[in-house]
Design goal:
The protein is of the alpha+beta class. Helix content is 31%, strand content 29%.
């Protein structure tokens, strides 16, 4: 029996960086013989500098870091709630020599900078349409959100869609591993005569707010605020406002549409139709299988996760949940043979990471939420688009659940399309595993773009 030993990294608020370290930094830590690549993306925003961390092997992206200190040549970064700290020294060779620490365990982590990050082939370089950086207010939560509005031209009245990102802290381009999928989608649709509003998630880039206490329901209020903003623009045909949500965004879009007469149509990209805990159980199995885990390991992991999700769902007090979860995770390691058991220091690191990730308001809401309950209240036209080879949101079970819920509510304006050989990001894939995302040069399949563009065009005639 072999336990998976991985780092689960929390989504936390943004930070400031100095000019000298702006760019993209790459490094690898090794835990029990398993290598884990980490990418630090440092950029400038209106408040100075902000940064996020990606973990490609885990399919995790855009993790904000909440404390940073750079007093040349010393760099210190911390994710306090997860017990993570990085200390490094910037060398003349433009390499940072340092240590990644968590839960008392230390791992060498040296970073090299890539100043010339290659643009993916689909990333636009010319914008022959109107582009405006904007801010709007979420009056309910009293926060300001920053985004970009693109219109076919400055003059006119156009249908407009709001792009809604998936889980994790993401900027307006939904940037991942050099791919900017929302930029590509916005460029394509705007050139087809459809305006697009995309915005930084709360706590990211130009957007304010505290992600640590926010749930999917809170993010839905950000989207509603974006719609309210569009209604103030003379260039927007307010009878033709739509939503496009990817992954968790595919949960949010129906939330907004079911409670607003302002939404004319919605597009669900890899949207979910089953409860969060069921989704995660299936996701863990498919991702693990693609990574080479045995059936025995997969079934054991599913059983362990089911126990964990049950605690999160039934124990409303998060501090009590943390105590119960700690006992379960520790017990799972205690069952290992002595020659396979990590040191207690390493076990504490895993426990700290796991607890920090799952004992949070967002995770508790996500595992208990059943999208089908709100989908039955959506009355506007819906396009359900999923990749056949998606290992994060399994296509068949979710598209069927979405279709059933919409039809149960009497919605007959539903189009369901499963795209062959496409992954969760709508890339045309080969292995279709999570670790292939970065290797594929395509950002978003032209076939998927055409499906979206053609369908929306028909809705706004």
């Amino acid at each position: 029996m072999k336990k998976a030993f991985s780092l689960l990294l929390l989504f936390i608020s943004s930070l400031s960086f100095s000019q000298e370290i702006a760019g993209q930094w790459f490094g690898t830590i090794e835990i029990q013989g398993t290598k884990l690549n980490l990418i630090f993306n440092i950029r400038k925003d209106s408040n100075g500098y902000a940064a996020t961390m990606d973990s490609p092997e885990q399919g995790v992206r855009g993790i904000p870091i909440n404390t940073v200190s750079f007093q040349s040549p010393n760099l210190k970064m911390g994710i306090e709630i997860a017990g993570i700290e990085y200390n490094g020294t910037l060398k003349a060779s433009n390499e940072i020599i340092g240590t990644f620490s968590q839960g008392g365990a230390n791992f060498p982590l040296n970073l090299i900078q890539n100043k010339d990050v290659k643009k993916r082939p689909q990333e636009p370089t010319e914008f022959n349409y109107y582009v405006e950086n904007i801010t709007f207010q979420n009056k309910k939560d009293n926060i300001s959100l920053g985004g970009t509005l693109t219109l076919p031209s400055k003059e006119g009245k156009f249908p407009v869609v709001v792009l809604i990102s998936g889980s994790g802290a993401q900027n307006r381009d939904s940037e991942l591993l050099g791919h900017k999928s929302f930029l590509v989608i916005a460029d394509y649709l705007t050139k087809r005569g459809i305006g697009v509003l995309r915005f930084d998630d709360r706590g990211v880039g130009e957007s304010k707010g505290d992600r640590n206490i926010a749930t999917t329901k809170d993010f839905a209020t950000d989207v509603s605020a974006a719609v309210e903003y569009l209604k103030t623009r003379k260039e927007v045909n307010i009878k033709k406002i739509g939503l496009i949500g990817h992954s968790e965004g595919g949960i949010i879009a129906p939330m907004v549409a079911a409670n607003s007469k302002d939404i004319s149509y919605i597009v669900l990209l890899a949207g979910t139709g089953i409860p969060g805990d069921e989704l995660l159980i299936q996701q863990t199995y498919l991702v693990g299988k693609a990574a080479g885990m045995s059936e025995e390991e997969l079934k054991e992991t599913q059983a362990d996760n089911a126990k964990i999700y049950d605690i999160i769902k039934t124990e409303k007090n998060l501090e009590t949940a943390k105590q119960k979860l700690t006992a379960i995770i520790q017990a799972s390691f205690d069952e290992l043979p002595a020659d396979q058991k990590p040191s207690q220091e390493e076990i504490n690191t895993v426990i700290s990471q796991q607890i920090g990730m799952i004992a949070s308001p967002w995770f508790q809401y996500f595992v208990t939420y059943n999208p089908s309950l709100i989908l039955k209240d959506v009355k506007c036209p819906v396009l359900v688009l999923n990749g056949e080879k998606d290992v994060q949101v399994p296509s068949k079970v979710n598209t069927q659940a979405i279709k059933n819920a919409l039809e149960k509510g009497g919605n007959k304006k539903v189009t369901v399309v499963e795209l062959p050989n496409m992954n969760h990001l709508f890339q045309e894939c080969v292995t279709c595993s999570v670790d292939e995302y970065e290797k594929i040069e395509q950002t978003f399949s032209p076939i998927a773009l055409a499906q979206i563009g053609d369908w929306i065009t028909n809705q706004v005639k």
